[in-house]
Amino acid sequence: MGMTEPRENPVSPDGQDDLPEQIRVRREKRDRLLAEGVQPYPISVPRTHLLTDLRAKYDGQELEPDTKTGEQVAVAGRVIFLRNTGKLCFVRLREGDGTELQVMLSLADVGEQELARFKALVDIGDLLSVRGEVVTSRRGELSVQATSWQMAAKTLRPLPNEHKPLNEEARVRLRYVDLIVRPEAREMVRTKAAVLKSLRATFDGHDFIEVETPVLQLTNGGAAAKPFRTHLNAFDQDMLLRIALELDLKRAMIGGVDRVYEIGRTFRNEGLDSTHAAEFSMIEAYQAYGDYDSMAELIEELIRNAARAVGRTVITARDGSQIDLEQPWRHATLFELVSEAVGEPVDASTEAAALVKIAERHSVELQPGWNAGEIALEIYEKLVEHTLIQPTYVRDYPESVRPLSKPHREIPGLVEAWDLIINGVELGVAYSELNDPVIQRERLVAQSLLAAAGDPEAMDLDEDFLRAMEFGMPPAGGMGMGLDRLVMLFTGVGIRETILFPLLRPE
Predict the structure, then answer these.
(1) 410 labelled as ligand-binding?
(2) Rounded (5°) CA angle 103-104-108
(3) Which fold has domain 20-166?
(4) Is the pTM value of this prediction over 0.85?
(5) In sequence order, what are the residues at sequence separation of 6 or more whose Cβ sits closer than 8 angstroms to the Cβ of residue 438?
(6) Closest listed residue to residue 337, CA positions, set 391, 383, 400, 406
(7) 436 is in an annotated binding site
(8) Whose CA, among 32, 221, 367, 431, lies 20 to 30 Å from 181?
């Protein structure tokens, strides 16, 4: 801990600043720089090498202590440690990826005036540019022996430190500070980027084309969720933020983009918890002449490749067990799993009255008027879903709960759909997509009647989508997966940690 390190936390637990003194002192230093005719925020500063470059070049060489390499460099970074002794100042600089390097400023090299200015003007947190020779210190540490220094940006607020770290709420609210002080926060950004890169590479390898579709929508479709509402002044038209990517991607497929996907933001105006956010990233893909089996192969490859890309093919589950994503994944039907859970056979022909009794016996609360499919799904969600730790495709749902899916090729009353559950959380869904426009219209009309009756999650009737379907959609498989939940699986953290700047209540 540097001797000049302030010991206050920049944010008190109630989120109120308590730093007028700290900020006043630093503002005076900024003003002093200006009075000297020096810019505290110059347009540019000398920078010939990244710290990463110097580490890569010299770390393997095992140089003796007190070595002078003869290489002159200009480097820049954030001051994260500062120790001012009489004739020698030690500074540790850090750049964006977390690479750190020591800088030494001595009376002999920079002169009395510059050393005094440095001690008076530089604080922990400042962004600094330094010129000098690459050397090793007496202790053998790779360093830059400075001959000059320049402020790159003066910091007006002190950073938190180990004596007063950011609390969990402040870490999310002040994510930019969290990124400065915590390597785990920086690592999360890079993990998510690596996952995205891998997903795109896997799609590329299967000739999928990435597209972008509108966030602003006239109707609410492709999922059961409550939308955000807004207004388009130019058309004097009420609009919705999309809750899914599905209908526009299917329009693209109808137009001949046979393998299409999108990674995009979607918005659901619903409850927030450790697995749900109001704004999150979805991945949806559609494959002409595919079905829900080809989608299972695709999502398995997407997840495995992403896990390999971030070195997380074996993860610790919520119950402490190990999940090895390289092992075969289980396939089981919804009714098989419900039968296991309730200890008696249940299938697509089991009537609602019998299911109500089973639900009562197992303390599963039901809504009045639910049909057999909805009751079976509720029993599954309350008794089974959270217990599925190893990767499991839960297949073959009742028709009433998956209105955009194709009737099962063998079992009446069921549709070809699966949910992929890993670590007790739904990670992805897929369908053999419904492509009969007549049945599609019947199901969407039924949904729109529910919406008209006040169901906030029911889909509206999208006449343009139905018209597109009438031009002929090929048989297809479609899948959706939450990007943030995938990152949660690999990292074992909640959704707020995986989203760089999550939505929070105003301070």
Answers:
(1) no
(2) 150
(3) OB fold (Dihydrolipoamide Acetyltransferase, E2P) (2.40.50)
(4) yes
(5) none
(6) 383
(7) no
(8) 32
